[in-house]
Every structure is written in structure tokens, then in C-alpha cells.
Amino acid sequence: MDLNYSDADNAFRMEVRDWLQANLDDDLRFKVFNHRRMQKEEILRWHKKLASNGWSTVAWPVEYGGTGWNATQRHVWDDECASAGTPMVLPFGVAMVAPVIMKFGNQAQKDHYLPRIAAGTDWWCQGYSEPGSGSDLASLKTKAERVTQADGDYYVVNGQKTWTTLGQHANMMFCLVRTEQTERRQEGISFLLMDMTTPGITVRPIITLDEDHEVNEVFFDNVKVPAANLVGEEGKGWTYAKYLLGHERTGIAAVGRSKRELVFLKRLAAEQTKNGRPLLDDPLFAAKVATLEIELMALEMTVLRVVSQEGAKKGPGPEASMLKIKGTEIQQSLSELMLEAAGPLAMPFDQSLLEGGDETTDDSLVGMDVAPLAPHYFNYRKTSIYGGSNEIQKNIISQMILGI
């Protein structure tokens, strides 16, 4: 297993770096580096710019419009995007539902949805969690009953989903529904593609502790979904959901973003003072930063090991759970140390500042430039929960890797 980058890998890195430098708009870079909230238009603007260069779907196979890059190139791409400060390409379409459609969908579904996902035409959201069915997803109760009517076959869906990220913007949802009551809860679950403009769908906002409208409740009241929108076989949705979650958990590790945030943390700590000297020179705080940096380096080596395995045609397995646990723990620790370094300066909570820019022209990280750190900290409390809570990931590791 060779974890070193080849000359070709390094040349590819420079190609990516030069393209990002030439094409990333300054206003988007500013927002990412300074923890400002991205608007729908800004996210789509970046997605469409990537799509125009064929780089919105870097992990897709060539036959579906992907780049054909190997696992190492995709890792380099993620690393350079994080370092440059690009907005995140929303994973729900590109990295989550698309691989399921590619593997389990029929040709008509592939022909219709994949080009729209690549172009950013459809904005997808995920209909998994329900009240009382989050980490225990197999207990979901949203029901879909198949009926035949004069205008065709439909599923009539009734129930509720919750924590639906950015569902207020979505025109499509991939949704787990119960099509049959079975003794084994993982059976009888199906995977539907739903048009969010269908009558009977209601989206209600959930305002979180950081005062952001990021997640939602979604209600289904006799929603008619064409039977043609069933992915794969009826009752096999649990298999498709596990396949999807393997891809999601690998991405949650977000090593590149954590490396960028570590640079921000060090810069912030160098500018803040304690007892008349930079906070980064304080032995106790410096030890915390050093410990975190070591953990991040170890995580990156683990990611490279997984990348090496993927290069050998091995898809994400239970090791994705290890990346998810450690990656989210590091993300939370970074947000905690930022808040500690900012101290009282992180107390202001200005919505207009979080959602827009400001007139600051110097490179200092004082005053209102650190104001977003408190909501950033609150927002990152969720990372150890979504994609399957870290407690559940530990169970997966125990069973699938340790054999306990």
C-alpha cells in the first residue's frame, strides 16, 4: 500500500489548483473562509460553473458523465477545493441518490435524473429520519400503499419526515417508505423518488439553536407518487439505503475542510492575546492545538488507506464508520477551540452578518469577523448525529470489523 503521491498526482493537483484560482468567485471564497451562510443562488452558481467544466460529478463513472478520475485524484480534488474555499457541492443529488440510481435504478430513471443532477437542474433532499426513527431508521412508519387508478399505478404516501436538510429549496426527494408490514423491520421498506411540488406535501421549517433555517419537517397527506418512481424492487429499500449511507459517511470525514479550519484556528490564536502574548504561545492552548493536529494527520492517513483500497476496486465498507466517527469528532473539537480562542469576541450574533458580507478589507480576525464562530459551533453539534449517530457507527465497527 503506497500512500505517497506520484508525480502525476502532483501535476494533477497543480492543474486543479490553477483552475480553482481562476474560476472561484471572491465573494464565495470570502463566505467559506469566514463561516458565512451560503444562499441557494450561490450554491447553484458554483455547481453550474463546475458542471460547465465537467467537474460537478467527479466521482461518477465516465459512462454517466463523470470524470473518470481515480480515487487518489478525487481525494486531491476534495483537498484542493477545501483549501481554496469553494462552496460544498450538495451531496444529496451528486453523492447520495445518484450512486443508488446508477446501481439499482432502471434505464429510464438513469436517462432522466442523472443529467439533471449533474447540471444542477434538480435540488434533492433526503427523506430518511422521522420522529422516533433517526438512528433506529428501520422503525420508520411513513406508509406507501400501491393503488391502480385510471391514470396509472401510484403509491399513496402518508406520514412525516424530519431534519430534512434544505428541504425548503428542494424540488425532489429520495424517500424511504414502508410498503409492507413485516416481522423483520428492515424488510418491507422501499425507495421512492418524489416530486416535492406534488399536492399533499407540506414543508415546515425547524429553526435550530444557531437561528438558521437549515432543516425542516415534511408532511405527506395522501401524496400520489407514480409507481415508475420506485427505485429497484419493492421492499428492498433497506439495502439501497445502506449502500447510500456508505457513500455519505465517507464524505462526512471532510479532512480537507478540517485542514482549512485548522489554519483558521492557528491564525485566530496567533492574533488573540493572553497575559500580553499570543494565545498560540500559551502552553496549554498550544498543546490542545497540537493534539488536534496530530489526530487530523492520523485521520488523513486513514483516509488515504481507504482511498488506496478504492483504487483496488473495493467500495466503501464498514471502515466508512471509522472515518465518520473521527472526522466529526475533529470537526467539533475545531469549533470548540475556535470559540475558546475568540472568547468574548464570539458573543455577537448578527443574522445579517452571517448571511452577507461586510466592508472589512484587512486580514485581521478580530471583531465581527469572529462573530460567526458561536453559530458555527452550535451547528457542528449535529455532525456526530447525522449520517447515523456515532454510537451506531461504533456498533457497526464492533460487528463488521471486530466481529463482536
Describe what is shown at a glance.
The protein is 47% helix and 15% strand. The chain is of the alpha+beta class. The chain is globular and about 80 Å long.
Strand content: 5-15%
Structural class: alpha+beta
Q: How can the largest sheet be summarized? A: 4 strands, antiparallel
The ordered H/E elements are HHHHHHEEEEEEEHHEEHHHHH
Radius of gyration: 22 Å
Placed side by side, the strands forming the largest sheet appear as 2-3-7-6
Strand tally: 9
- The number of helical runs is 13
Low-confidence stretches: none
Give the CA-CA distance, first to last residue.
27 Å
Kindly report the average pLDDT value. 89
Overall geometric form: globular
Helix content: 40-55%
Please provide a written account of the structure.
- The strands form three sheets. A four-stranded antiparallel β-sheet has the order 2-3-7-6, with no helix packed on it. Strands 1-4-5 form a three-stranded mixed β-sheet. A two-stranded antiparallel ribbon has the order 8-9.
- It is globular and about 80 Å long.
- Helix 10 (319-342) packs antiparallel against helix 13 (390-400).
- By secondary structure, the protein is of the alpha+beta class.
- The model has no long low-confidence stretch (mean pLDDT 89).
- Strand 2 (143-149) and strand 3 (152-161) form a beta hairpin.
- It has helices spanning 7-23, 26-33, 40-52, 71-84, 91-104, 107-119, 237-252, 255-271, 283-311, 319-342, 351-355, 373-379, 390-400; strands at 124-127, 143-149, 152-161, 172-178, 189-195, 201-207, 213-226, 273-274, 277-278.
- The protein is built from 13 helices and nine strands.
